[in-house]
Description:
The protein has 9 helices and no strands. By secondary structure, it is mainly α. Helix 3 (26-51) packs antiparallel against helix 8 (135-155).
Amino acid sequence: MLDALAAIESSSFATWVRESPSLFAYTFILSLHAMGLATVGGLSSAVALRLLGIARAIPLAPLRELFPLMYAGFWINAFSGLALLAASATTMLFNPMFYFKMGFVLAAVLIMRVIKSRVFGDSELVGSGVAPPFSRPLAVASLSCWAGAIVAGRMTAYPGLLESYLGF
């Protein structure tokens, strides 16, 4: 497995991402990754906060239009993340925080899909403008997962930290 990861990391694309002085390499891809996260996590958080009762003057129905933008942000994040992963595959895939991050992202996206189908999939419910009680735990879980993904993502830059504090 390590040989396969080393081959990915030494590919011309991964080397370009990691070593090129071009602004379109690592800097641009990392910026895309941050913008994708800001889009998917930010809009998902806005929906979650509305479901928790913040900004009740904003009707629920128009928030349904945010889901395609959230999915676009997710895919920008996914593709830029794969490029960043290729550039450091041999280290990142042995970093426990990477797996925490991916777990939080997976959970957040699954929750986002549940919110879309159960809350925004019911036209009558959305038309009422009142968030259903079952949406509150989903909203809290969504906010928690996106926060966890952000923190774990930042912590991937400090691979020894978990081992030193928690003995992993």
